[in-house]
Amino acid sequence: MARQKINKQTQTAILLECRRRCCICFGLEGNLDEKRGQIAHLDHSPNNNDPDNLAFLCLEHHDQYDSGTSQSKGLTKEEVKAYKEELIDHFDQQRNPVKHEPSLSNVIGVSYMRLFGAVETPLLMSLFESPAQEVMPMGDNGPTDFYIIGTKGPTLHKNLFDFWTKRWQYKDAIPLKTELWTKCSGSRSMANDIYWTALSPTVEDLMSYCSHSDINEDGNLPNTARELLNLKYSDEELYALQGTQSSDVGFLFVILTNQGKSDVHELHLNYNFVTNALQFIQGGSLRDNMSKKEPREVALNDGLISERPKDMRTLKIASLASNTSLLWLLCIYRKKKNGLPDFYLGDVTIPTGLSCELEGERIDQTIRQPYGELAARMHVPSGWFNQ
């Protein structure tokens, strides 16, 4: 059957929504430079010209996506579609600046953000804790591909630094250093454990883990896995296996912003705490992983949370200045295709309400839950260099 051409109206719509920016360049590197490129078919079917199946890619990424190289780099259809949606959202926000999502009070604004990347997000969290002047380029010889946080590291790739400086809009937010935040932030070993916990005991998942660029720095893990598991796959066959990706793990944050003109005092954040039978598993041998249980068999999901007993707790904060935000990590989870939780990888925090003192008056406010699939989301680019 002859290849069906994309009609001019559809071509124009695709080019206008992305402004000739490659969505993979944007998603992985935060790169918004105009590029020479082509309209790609995300399902690799040249006759499926549905706009949802089309995306503008630069020539390099189009070649990668349409070849076996895309599999070695983990470029899945779902991932590229997510990058496309984020790029469109970016330009929509430029045309119509987004205000904080509405809340039941005009004092504390409530918004949510989902970040995806089991291995990458903990490094980004360490950036949230660092004043901009503490993040310095490595070396004294002009432009560099690596930056160092503080005086002792860790160090990060330029693409993650660019994501933080160019795309992350809450750089001045104050992290709430809860037990979960402290456990995850800046810890490379913990980042690996989070990814490991999300894996099913399958060859596909193990090879996805082994081929991750921030885990497999020396390039030997896939060969080691082949030897341990007696696999007889070629490199091409291994990279074609689509298991759990690092980007399949989501981190749910809530951002609480004092939108008033005065500081608030004695801010109390009320929440329900739900204990999960599935806790973070320290990465073990590949053989050991093959005998572990499917994580979803023991983990909390949204259905189980409604049935479980909840421990009611309160976080107390002395004050929050005007136009200042708090960043609160609530949970980490394995996502479904729509970005919402399939199951949770650890304990779950559910904010319920807050109270604060403003100009001598006590104010109570309900904290709404995320707007499902409409909650803002970002995929974190790879970034670890060393630690």
Mind explaining what this structure looks like?
- Helices cover 31% and strands 26% of the residues.
- By secondary structure, it is an alpha+beta fold.
- It has two domains: 8-95, no CATH class; 108-386, no CATH class.
- The termini are far apart.
- Mean pLDDT is 82; it is low at 97-104.
In short:
The chain is an alpha+beta fold and 387 residues long. It has 2 domains: 8-95, no CATH class; 108-386, no CATH class. It has helices at 8-18, 23-29, 59-65, 69-72, 77-95, 121-128, 158-167, 179-184, 188-198, 203-210, 221-229, 235-240, 286-290, 295-298, 302-305, and strands spanning 37-41, 54-58, 108-116, 135-137, 146-149, 155-157, 174-175, 249-258, 264-274, 311-320, 325-335, 341-344, 348-358, 361-366, 376-379, 384-386.
**Spatial extent as radius of gyration:** 22 Å
Separation of the first and last Cα atoms: 54 Å
- Structural class call reads alpha+beta
Q: pLDDT below 50 for ≥5 consecutive residues: which ranges?
A: 97-104
Helix content: 25-40%
Features:
four-stranded antiparallel beta sheet, 16 strands, alpha+beta, 387 residues, 2 domains
Map the helices and strands.
Blueprint: H1 8-18, H2 23-29, E1 37-41, E2 54-58, H3 59-65, H4 69-72, H5 77-95, E3 108-116, H6 121-128, E4 135-137, E5 146-149, E6 155-157, H7 158-167, E7 174-175, H8 179-184, H9 188-198, H10 203-210, H11 221-229, H12 235-240, E8 249-258, E9 264-274, H13 286-290, H14 295-298, H15 302-305, E10 311-320, E11 325-335, E12 341-344, E13 348-358, E14 361-366, E15 376-379, E16 384-386
Parallel strand pairs: 3-15, 7-11
Antiparallel strand pairs: 1-2, 3-8, 4-5, 5-6, 6-16, 8-11, 9-10, 9-13, 11-12, 13-14
